[in-house]
Amino acid sequence: MNEYKYLNLKNKNILEFKIDDNSIEKEIYLNEENISGKNLREIPVFNEIAAGNPIEINDEKQENFYLPKEWVDRNNDNFILQIKGG
């Protein structure tokens, strides 16, 4: 079970949640609530983006991450960058 924090800049709050990465089912554990299936939105993850000098990223997604649909604006492109370096 891995722990994550979601920072909502619009509402200025932080939500802590857990995901069991070993589970076949995509499910988020938020307090006493389990969110799964059609209530999740798939977000592409782009790994190993170099910090510092601006460069073009490899536009091939390496994996997907799942967040509750109500947290994600469905009218915009959403993605996650994993940054390396500093």
From TrEMBL:
InterPro entries in UniProt: LexA_repressor
Query: Which named protein is this?
Result: Uncharacterized protein
